[in-house]
Amino acid sequence: MAKKKPELRSVKWFGREDIYGMIYRGWMKNRGVPHDQFDGRPVIGICNTWSELTPCNSHFRTIAEHVRNGVLEAGGFPLEFPVMSLGETLLRPTAMLYRNLASMDVEESIRANPLDGVVLLMGCDKTTPSLLMGAASVDIPAIGVSGGPMLSGKYRGTEIGSGTNTWSMSEDLRAGKITLAEFHEAESCMNRSHGHCMTMGTASTMASMVEALGVGLPGNAAIPAVDARRNVLARMAGRRAVEMVKEGLTLSKLLTREAFENAIRVNAAIGGSTNAVIHLIAIARRIGVELSLEDFDRLGRGVHCLVNLMPSGKYLMEDFYYAGGLPAVIRELGANRLLHRDALTANGKTIWENNREAPCWNRKVIFPVKKPFKKNAGIAVLRGNLCPDGAIIKPSAATPKLMKHRGRAVVFENIEDFHRRIDDPKLEIDRRSVMVLKNCGPKGYPGMAEVGNMPLPPKLLKRGVTDMVRISDARMSGTAYGTVVLHVAPEAAAGGALALVENGDEIELDVARRRLELLVSGEELERRRSNWRPPEPPLERGYWRLYFDHVLQANEGADLDFLAGKSGAFVPRDNH
Ligand code: FES
Q: According to the model, what pLDDT value does residue 2 have?
C-alpha cells in the first residue's frame, strides 16, 4: 500500500478557494509571486537572525539567499522571516536574558505562519539555542545552518582568538604589559571578517552541537563564514529542507536521547563551552527528552579533549576546519565506542554513515582518542552544601594543581562590588584565596552574566599569579579559562547557600571527588539565613518581570517554567 503523504500545513492557508484563500495568497502576490507557487509545494521558512546589532550574524542575508536558491532548486517555496536577534557583544545586561524571549518569537512565528519546514540561521552564541528551543516546541521538519566562525585573528605575527585574547590582553593592559594603542590595534586584528568567535567558544560549541545532534549537515560546525563552502552548505540545507518535509522528518525524530548523549560526548571531545550544559538541557526539555547535570558528568567521564583549540589549546576554528573539522572528531568517537552510531541526522543518514570515513589532515589540531590532547575533558558536576542542586567546572580549562584546593573566601556581593574593589591594592587577598561572586545567576543579574571568570587582582597578576579558584552563580564565556566554578544552584538571589558566604569562610574544592563545601556549621548558616532577604524584581513590569518570576535555575536549563515541552504544529483558527 502506498504510504500516505503527510498533509502540509501550508495547504490550510494557500490551498483554500474561499475568501481566506484570497487573503492568504493574494497579499503574497504583491511582490511578484506567481500563482503556480501555491500549488501545494512545501513552504520553507528561512528563520533569519540577521541584525546589524549582531555582528557575528552580519552576513546572514547572503546565507539566506543561498538557502533560498536551494529551496527553489528542490521545488519548494522559500519565505524568509526575521526573529529577534541576540548579539552577545552589545546586548545588556546579557544576551542570555533574552534567549527565552527569542525562543518564544521563533516558536510563535513558525506556528502562526504557513510553514511546512524551516531552515534556522544561527551564529552568535544565543541565536543557536533560542532557535532550536523555539523550533523544538513546534516540532516541524527543521534544519540548522550556522553562520561559521571568523577567520583567525592575526596580530603582529601571532594568532589571536576572540574572547580568549580579549581576556588575556585586557589583563596585560591592566598589568601595564601593553599600551592602549596596542590594545586598539589588537581589536582590529581580531575581528577581520564576517563570522562568529573563532575560538572554541560558545558559538563554535553550539555550531558543533548542531552537527552532533544531527540537526545540521556534516561540516556545519567549522567552515569559516567567508569560505564559499559555507554558502554551499546553506544551499544544500535549503534543498534538504524540502526533502525533509516530504519525508515528515520532524525535529523530534532527530533530537532523541541518543542524539543528546552524542552531543554531550562531542562537547567533551572538543573542549566545548560550559554554556552548552544549560542550552542542551533547555533544548532537551522542550522536545521532551530527560537530561540532567549528572548526564554530563557520567557521559563525559573518560572522554578526552581531542582538539587543540583556544581556550583549552592553541589553534583556531579555521585550523580546525582545514584539519578535518567536527567529522574527524565524530569519527574518532565512533571508532572508540563513544557514539550512538545509529542516531539519525538531517540528511536522512545516520551520524556514523556521515562520518565514518572522515579524514584528519593535521594531528597537531585534532588528536586521536588513543593519544588525546588533554585527558578527561568532560564537564565535572560538583555537589556539596554550597551547591546542593549542582555547580560545574571545566577541568580542561582549569589549572590541575588548583583542582583540589582549600582557601578563605573573598566575597563580592555583586559585579559592581567586584569592580569597585578588585583593583584596590589594600584588598585582602592572596594566591590561596577563593574568590566568591554572588547575585549573577539567572534571577540575580538578571540573565546569568558571563562574569564567572573574574579577572584576578592586579597586585597578584604583577606577582605572576595566573589562576585562582573562583566560584559564582554566573556563567563564563566559552572563550574563557581558569579554575572557575560556575552555575552554582540554587543561585544567591534564589536563597542558595552562596548568599550566606562571608569573607574569611573556608571553602574546599575537590574536583576528583566532585565536592564543593562551605566549611561553616549548619547552625551558623541558619543564623545567617534568618537575616537574608530575597531581592526585589529588577523591574516591576514587562519581559524582565516575566523572566524574574518564571526563570528556572541553571541545572534546569534556565528556561521559563511555562515554556518546557512543546505545543506542536497545530494550525491556529482563521484570522478574520
Ligand atoms: Fe558572537 Fe562571540 S560574540 S559569537
A: 54
N-term to C-term CA, the chain:
40
Closest atom of ligand 1 to 202 CA is 4
Give the pTM: 0.97
Helices (H), 175-221: 180-190, 202-212
Q: Which three cell numbers stand for residue 35?
A: 500563482
Atom of ligand 1 nearest to the CA of 55: 1
What distance in Å separates the CA atoms of residue 38 and residue 14, rounded to the nearest whole number? 6
- pLDDT given at position 284: 98
Q: Which atom of ligand 1 is nearest to the CA of 54?
A: 1
Instruction: Name the residue among 281, 214, 279, 219 with its Cα closest to residue 251.
Output: 214
- Looking at residue 410, its amino acid is V
Q: How many Å lie between the centroid of ligand 1 and the Cα of residue 576?
A: 42
88 Cβ closer than 6 Å to some ligand 1 atom = yes
In angstroms, the CA 20 to CA 344 distance is 38
> Strand pairing partners for 307?
366
Instruction: Tell me the pLDDT tens digit for each residue of 130-187.
Output: 999 999 999 999 999 999 999 999 999 999 999 888 888 988 898 889 999 999 999 9
Question: Closest ligand 1 atom, CA of 196?
Answer: 4
Is the CB–ligand 1 distance for residue 56 below 6 Å? yes
Distances, alpha carbon 546 to alpha carbons 47, 155, 542, 549, 561, in Å:
25, 44, 6, 5, 11
Ligand 1 centroid to Cα of residue 20, in Å, is 43
Ligand 1 atom 2: residue of nearest CA: 197
Q: How far is the CA of 9 from the centre of ligand 1 (A)?
A: 35
Cα–Cα distance measured from residue 434 to residue 511, given in angstroms and rounded to the nearest whole number: 15
Protein residue closest via CA to atom 1 of ligand 1:
124
User: What residue spans of 17-84 are helical by DSSP H?
Assistant: 19-26, 60-73
In eight-state DSSP terms, residue 86 is -
Q: Name the nearest CA neighbour of 159 among 270, 366, 323, 315.
A: 315
Phi-psi sector, 482: left (phi>0), alpha (psi -120 to 50), beta: left
Ligand 1, residue 201: give the atom nearest the CA.
Answer: 2
Cα of 50 from ligand 1 centre, angstroms: 13
Using an 8 Å Cβ cutoff, are 228 and 197 in contact? Answer: no
Confidence of residue 311 (pLDDT cuts 50, 70, 90): confident
- Residue 124 CB less than 6 A away from ligand 1: yes
Pocket-testing residue among 125, 126, 151, ligand 1, by greatest number of atoms within 8 A of Cβ: 125
Ligand 1 atom with least separation from CA of 123: 4
Query: What backbone phi and psi angles, to 5 degrees, belong to 119?
Result: -110, 125
The CA distance from 125 to 127, in Å, is 6
Residue 481 phi/psi, 5° resolution? -150, 170
Q: How high is the mean pLDDT of the chain?
A: 96
